[in-house]
Amino acid sequence: MRKIGVVLLTIISLAGPLKGGEYVLPSVTLGENAEITMLTCSPGQELYSVFGHSAIRVRDQEQNLDWVFNYGTFDFADPNFYVNFVKGRLNYILSVVDYRYFQHEYMLEGRWIYEQKLNIDNRQKQELFDSLVINYNVPEYRYYLYDFFYDNCATRIRDVFTEGIDSEIIFDYSTLEKGQSFRDLLQPYLTEKPWVRLGINLILGNPADKIADPWEYMFLPDHMMEVFEHASFANNNEEIPFTPGSRVILEGREINPNPVLLSPLPVLLFVLLAGILLSYRDLKQKRLSKWFDIAVFTVAGLLGALFIFMWTGTDHYVTSRNYNLLWSQPLHIPLVFLLLYSSKAIKLKFYYFSINAILTLLVILFWFITPQDLPVVILPFMLTLILRSSVIALTYYKKPERVPVT
């Protein structure tokens, strides 16, 4: 269960679990040398930070002010935190903290912080700052319902800039590798976490395979930083760069990834090999390896139950319409026990496992036309299900009264 919780936390969070403050921000008139910048933080080792983070910094030495507005926080003290967390109904919070505390957290984690100064005039700075203060002070604006792809700590900042600055922003998407789905965009961040990568790719449903528009790429902080680096303001008949450029304000350190002793592929290949050896023995001795079948079909059934819950029992749009249900049937859980422990229902055993073998085989054969990108690494496990379903079906083909089990 802890592994599942870790995967869910990664899916629904692009930022750290920091509690938002409850005080009211004062009204401040910014000085002429005040700066508003966008901060982009590099990905971290912890799962909640694996995709990086974005925030807005307002700095004014005349007012002794250096605040960071952070749209990626939530409150563990919420009495319904865990229920809302799992069901996709967790309110995220705009929090404000002094920059030195913000920086200290990333310094401890060895992460980089990049800063991009907004090339706007003093009036625009004041209007943008005032809108951020209002968003913080008014609870209806401070809290928002988080959405992994469409409304997160990065997209909120993108929208604040495009809606809160009265100059048109012209985006140049030429540096982006276009034509990628949301799922594709996540993969580079998961290379060093193969089990998390497999879990995320299994739980994410068909919506994750939508080809993202360049505008939508900015749900990831790195892509948003890249896009704004090449953006500009339309000013009469000329274009003014959105930012004079990015600079490093906190140097991180090289973080060695946590070693993974066993990645999914060798583990699942071992399961397949065990299935082949046991199947050979079972067919030769006309008996069934009950313990093995119960293990693999229970895992498949539990996965199916999880996929159905994430699709129908939560508000997570990204986990809906999950075609992994074609091979991970929740019915495996009750039926594998009933069919293997009971000496009755011989025909049901034959037909159920025959149909399951055929259906799972068809999923593999027509993998390339499914509307969802299914993880290739799960293929050995699916082959194990086909193999064991076929062995069980063949064992009961001649309708024996009782099949020896081991």
Overall pLDDT score: 88
Shape: elongated
Q: Determine the CATH superfamily of the largest domain.
A: endopeptidase domain like (from Nostoc punctiforme)
Task: Predict the CATH topology of the largest domain.
Answer: endopeptidase fold (from Nostoc punctiforme)
How helical, in percent, are the residues?
Answer: 40-55%
Structure description:
The protein is of the alpha+beta class and 406 residues long. It folds into 2 domains: 2-250, endopeptidase fold (from Nostoc punctiforme) (Alpha-Beta Complex), CATH 3.90.1720.10; 264-395, no CATH class. Helices cover 43% and strands 14% of the residues. The strands form 2 sheets. The chain has a 7-stranded antiparallel sheet with strand order 6-4-3-2-1-5-10. It is elongated. The two termini are 29 Å apart. 35% of the residues are buried.
Short description:
By secondary structure, the chain is of the alpha+beta class. Helices cover 43% and strands 14% of the residues.
Write the layout of secondary structure elements.
Blueprint: H1 2-11, E1 35-41, E2 53-60, E3 65-73, H2 81-87, E4 91-98, H3 99-108, E5 113-117, H4 122-137, H5 139-142, E6 143-145, H6 153-164, E7 169-170, H7 182-186, H8 194-203, H9 221-229, E8 232-235, E9 238-241, E10 246-250, H10 264-285, H11 290-312, H12 332-341, H13 346-365, H14 379-395
Antiparallel strand pairs: 1-2, 1-5, 2-3, 3-4, 4-6, 5-10, 7-8, 8-9
Helix pairs in contact: 1-8, 10-14, 11-12, 11-14, 13-14
